[in-house]
């Protein structure tokens, strides 16, 4: 059934429960779609056998009327989540061939809700990148094309997840977001991406990039699908000390479409220099949509916004430099021999890590070094607190914040590539959200002049994903984003 | 200790860093067993081996052990402390960093009272106590070209306890370690076994001219696995530094290893690169916030510690401070003594017997009170016989010897061997009469004023009764008879 892959996750779930089709049929339809879309390079590993096996088990449950929330729904899993018995690489040569003997909490939750897995999705190496061009397994292509026909990047780091959801070769996908890695690729591929509040989803079993910023979240075709996935992914995990013991609401129920009386903040500092007119226009359009739905715009100030990127590019590499020390060739993964222990380390890490990862390890090592720690890391932590306080003050005036998701539409492979700084600018609107630990949602809202998707970002109060999703649903309805890649 | 150098007198400045392995079934951040002596790599979880995506979760019991220890050294328990990462690469450090506490330790500002010879005491400040993970173990001598790694120890909880640089002699260093070890053992927070490495000590040693207050350059001595060696190493190192300075050299700040076989400290092979540990707060762990109520509960459940016990022994049993400090040095010893002394008219007698006779015998056999051939009850039985005049103190020593050898109780030994003391004055009278009759010349000498012969007469009478005569009675009657 070719039509199966056109269904949203919610429709698929309902169809499975109504026995309109079987989980095995669904799996087969998606396995076929995955095979046809290999040109995108969205997957590092495909797991069709596993998907069929899981689908059979799902059918057995569905037959007994015991279908769980995601019974028989095929997902793609970002290859940053450790999956038991299935290679997990973080898109790095240093972990090529590594097969975990444990299952990450988030994937375990998803499988526990009945989801099936089509494979492991490509990403920027160790989730470091905004274009999915740093993967050891090659870049991912955006299913969207510019008018000049050039291959475009899907954004990153969750580029494989975004491309796969946009190309409808998975019903939904997991992503992780450290500085925008869910929301930016979602925006660049015309899908919905949700970075939950820090602590909402367990980090256990996710290859760490920057522990104080990393957060797993759903990437989906629409807001409802994101809500369904988040419910299954989230929850307290005693194995992650930073996960928060709060009950998980039924996020789907939050999608009432009613935002009357809600106040949404428009941060003046997000009107950055050189912002393309079409982004500005899209933002204005978003304001109009929410006003029309009965919400009230409030101009707010987040005065430390301009320090967010530099702060992020101190804290994230600092943590990464330490988190990635374990890839040393001693216990698992790549080992390149040397005549001494130190030489083995040097050979292994020089060959195992790509250029961007090495750059961030070096930056991180530098900012933590004796004599520089106070000037960089400590200062950055103080600024981070100020950024957090900016948002706290903003919540006195508004319930949610509306911003653009990215400063531009998808760019071509090769563009932005020579200059790390312009690449880092991709995260200018998303990074403050990670620094403050807040939830952020990217919703497709329109097309660029080049016919490429553009997203709007909604930022919520801590653990108020419900409001975020509710407002996101209203934006989604108003935007009526029906454009499709390759159309 | 003052070192008399060629150019004047020098004083030692010593600070000790003790790593005490916390008594706990599980490791600090994983559920793996922390037991000693298992087959290599059998007590290793994915967390201990730092597999991708693994996260540490603090073991609440280890925290409680650290709090207990902090209270035991009368320190401040910090309601908020922070775990930091200490970054360095080594094959037996799987994460590439050690989780430790750097800027904000769980415990700060404690003190230890040293028991010194002659019953003197001296107080030494404890700067801090923090919790950290142990590393694994590298084994280099099993293969010609490879090293083996055992991660059983990786992640085991250690307490690093740092003294102020207030220790002035090797003896004080020894007393510091003994007192710390006693407190740890009383609390059950560390077994204090230096040979197995569950208590390790690094000593920071410098010297300065007597009368000056500036610190000299210090050396850190590592790898010392007994209290005796710590004392020897400090003495050697201080002497080395004095000679070096007096010969026109300067002390280089460095890490030195104690070479047991040669009895010297030597410079550790200088590392190829100086370590910059790049400490920063571990983002995988929230700050450790303690509930004051919980601290109060632990405080309320604290056992009596050596200093308090010592004071009580002096007060309750009228022991000398020195005897009391000897007895309280080990919890089991103190308990043994109390069992022997219980309800006794003369607890000092019990203390003497425990310290002199029992410890002497145990020492010879390489045993301690926990596996003593003479139980506290048996020793009490022997002391009962002395106190009720059944046997003399001298006979008691013989009986004790038999008890040590056979494990029998005192009363049956006395019965079997017919060692009961003769208190019947008739028998003593007869023995005295016999001695006086056989030694008329000596009686005359005595009566002529050579009273020093009295002891000789006592000896003869005792000999005549096979040592069983009650010495006090012999004294009393003999004195009267000799007086004529």
Can you tell me about this structure?
The complex is a heterodimer of chains A (487) and B (484). Chain A contains 15 helices and eleven strands. The longest helix of chain A is centred in the C-terminal third of the chain and has 21 residues. Chain A has a single domain, classed as Amidase signature (AS) enzymes (Alpha-Beta Complex), CATH 3.90.1300. Chain A has an eleven-stranded mixed beta sheet, sandwiched between helices. The model of chain A has no long low-confidence stretch (mean pLDDT 96). Chain A has 487 residues and is an alpha/beta fold. In chain A, helix 7 packs antiparallel against helix 15. With 484 residues, chain B is of the alpha+beta class. Chain B has three domains: 297 residues, no CATH class; 114 residues, no CATH class; 59 residues, Arc Repressor Mutant, subunit A (Orthogonal Bundle). Chain B is built from 15 helices and 17 strands. In chain B, the strands form four sheets. In chain B, strands 1, 2, 3, 7, 8, 11, 12, 13, 14 and 15 form a ten-stranded mixed beta sheet that branches. In chain B, strands 6-5-16 form a three-stranded antiparallel beta sheet, with no helix packed on it. In chain B, strand 7 and strand 8 form a beta hairpin. In chain B, helix 6 crosses helix 8, helix 7 crosses helix 8 and helix 9 runs antiparallel to helix 10. Chains A and B meet through helix 9 and helix 10 of A and loops of B.
């Amino acid at each position: 059934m070719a039509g199966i892959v056109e269904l949203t996750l919610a429709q698929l779930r309902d169809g499975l429960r109504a026995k309109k089709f079987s989980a095995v049929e669904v799996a087969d339809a998606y396995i076929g779609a995955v095979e046809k879309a290999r040109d995108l390079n969205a997957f590092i590993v495909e797991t069709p056998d596993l998907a069929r096996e899981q689908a059979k088990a799902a059918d057995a449950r569905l037959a007994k009327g015991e279908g769980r929330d995601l019974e028989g729904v095929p997902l793609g899993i970002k290859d940053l989540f450790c999956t038991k018995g299935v290679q997990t690489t973080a898109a790095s040569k240093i972990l090529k061939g590594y097969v975990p003997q444990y299952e990450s909490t988030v994937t375990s939750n998803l499988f526990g809700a009945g989801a099936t897995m089509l494979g492991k999705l490509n990403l920027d190496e160790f989730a470091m990148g905004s274009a999915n061009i740093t993967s050891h397994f090659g870049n991912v292509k955006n299913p969207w094309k510019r008018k000049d026909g050039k291959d475009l990047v899907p954004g990153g780091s969750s580029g494989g997840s975004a491309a796969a959801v946009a190309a409808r070769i998975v019903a939904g996908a997991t992503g992780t977001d450290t500085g925008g890695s869910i929301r930016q690729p979602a925006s660049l591929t015309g899908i919905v991406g949700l970075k939950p509040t820090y602590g909402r989803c367990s980090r256990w079993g996710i290859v760490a990039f920057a522990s104080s910023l990393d957060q797993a979240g759903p990437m989906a075709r629409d807001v409802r699908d994101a809500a369904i996935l988040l419910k299954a992914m989230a929850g307290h995990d005693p194995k992650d000390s930073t996960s928060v013991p709060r009950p998980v609401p039924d996020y789907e129920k939050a999608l009432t479409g009613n935002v009357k009386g809600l106040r949404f903040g428009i941060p003046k500092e997000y009107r950055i220099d050189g912002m393309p007119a079409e982004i500005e226009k899209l933002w204005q359009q978003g304001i109009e949509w929410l006003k029309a739905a009965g919400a009230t715009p409030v101009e707010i100030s987040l005065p430390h916004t301009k320090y967010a990127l530099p702060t992020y590019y101190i804290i994230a590499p600092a943590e990464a430099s330490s988190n990635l020390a374990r890839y040393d060739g001693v216990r698992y993964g790549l080992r390149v021999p040397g005549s001494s222990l130190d030489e083995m380390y040097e050979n292994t890490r020089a060959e195992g890590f790509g250029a961007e990862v090495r750059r961030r390890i070096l930056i991180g090592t530098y900012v933590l070094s004796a004599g520089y720690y106070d000037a960089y890391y400590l200062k950055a932590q103080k600024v981070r607190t100020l950024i957090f306080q900016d948002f706290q003050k903003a919540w006195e005036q508004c319930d949610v914040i509306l911003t653009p998701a990215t400063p531009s539409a998808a760019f071509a492979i090769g563009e932005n590539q020579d200059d790390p700084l312009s690449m880092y600018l991709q995260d200018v609107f998303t990074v403050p959200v990670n620094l403050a630990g807040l939830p952020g949602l990217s919703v497709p809202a329109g097309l660029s002049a080049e016919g490429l998707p553009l997203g709007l970002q909604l930022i919520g109060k801590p653990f108020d994903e419900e409001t975020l999703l509710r407002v996101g649903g209203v934006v989604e309805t108003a935007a009526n984003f029906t454009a499709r890649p390759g159309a | 200790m003052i070192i008399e150098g060629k150019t004047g007198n020098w004083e030692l400045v010593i600070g000790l860093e003790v790593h005490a392995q916390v008594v706990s079934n599980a490791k600090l951040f994983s559920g793996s067993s922390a037991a000693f002596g298992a087959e290599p790599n059998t007590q290793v979880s994915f967390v201990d081996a730092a597999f991708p995506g693994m996260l540490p979760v603090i073991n609440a019991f280890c925290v409680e052990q650290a709090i207990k220890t902090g209270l035991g050294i009368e320190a401040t328990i910090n309601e908020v402390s922070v775990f930091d990462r200490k970054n360095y690469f080594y094959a037996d450090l799987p994460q590439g960093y050690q989780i430790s506490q750097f800027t904000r330790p769980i415990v700060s500002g404690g003190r230890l009272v040293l028991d010194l010879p002659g019953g003197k005491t001296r107080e030494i400040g404890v700067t801090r106590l923090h919790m950290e993970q142990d590393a694994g173990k590298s084994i280099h001598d099993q293969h010609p070209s490879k090293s083996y790694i055992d991660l059983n120890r990786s992640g085991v909880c250690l307490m690093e306890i740092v003294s102020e640089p207030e220790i002035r002699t090797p003896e004080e260093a020894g007393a510091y370690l003994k007192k710390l070890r006693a407190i740890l053992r009383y609390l059950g927070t560390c077994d204090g076994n230096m040979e197995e490495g569950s208590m390790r000590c690094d000593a920071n040693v410098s010297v300065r001219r007597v009368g000056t207050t500036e610190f000299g350059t210090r050396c850190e001595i590592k790898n010392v696995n007994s209290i005796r060696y710590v004392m020897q190493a400090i003495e050697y190192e201080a002497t080395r530094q004095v000679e070096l300075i007096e010969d026109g050299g300067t002390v280089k700040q460095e890490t030195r290893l104690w070479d047991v076989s040669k009895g010297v400290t030597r410079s550790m092979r200088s590392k190829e690169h100086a370590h910059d540990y790049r400490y920063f707060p571990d983002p995988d762990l929230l700050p450790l916030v303690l509930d004051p109520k919980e601290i109060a509960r632990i405080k309320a459940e604290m056992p009596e510690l050596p200093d308090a016990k010592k004071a009580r022994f002096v007060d309750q049993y009228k022991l000398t401070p020195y005897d009391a400090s000897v007895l309280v040095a080990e919890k089991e010893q103190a308990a043994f003594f109390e069992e022997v002394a219980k309800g006794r008219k003369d607890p000092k007698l019990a203390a003497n017997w425990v310290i002199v006779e029992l410890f002497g015998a145990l020492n010879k056999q390489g045993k301690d009170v926990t596996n003593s051939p003479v139980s506290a009850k048996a020793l009490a039985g022997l002391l009962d016989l002395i106190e009720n005049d059944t046997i003399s103190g001298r006979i008691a020593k013989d009986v004790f010897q038999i008890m040590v050898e056979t494990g029998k109780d005192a009363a049956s030994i006395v019965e079997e061997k017919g060692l009961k003391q003769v208190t019947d004055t008739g028998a003593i009278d007869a023995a005295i009469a016999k001695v006086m009759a056989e030694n008329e010349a000596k009686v005359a000498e005595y009566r002529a004023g050579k009273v020093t012969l009295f002891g000789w007469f006592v000896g003869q009478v005792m000999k005549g009764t096979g040592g069983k005569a009650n010495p006090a009675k012999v004294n009393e009657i003999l004195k009267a008879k000799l007086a004529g």
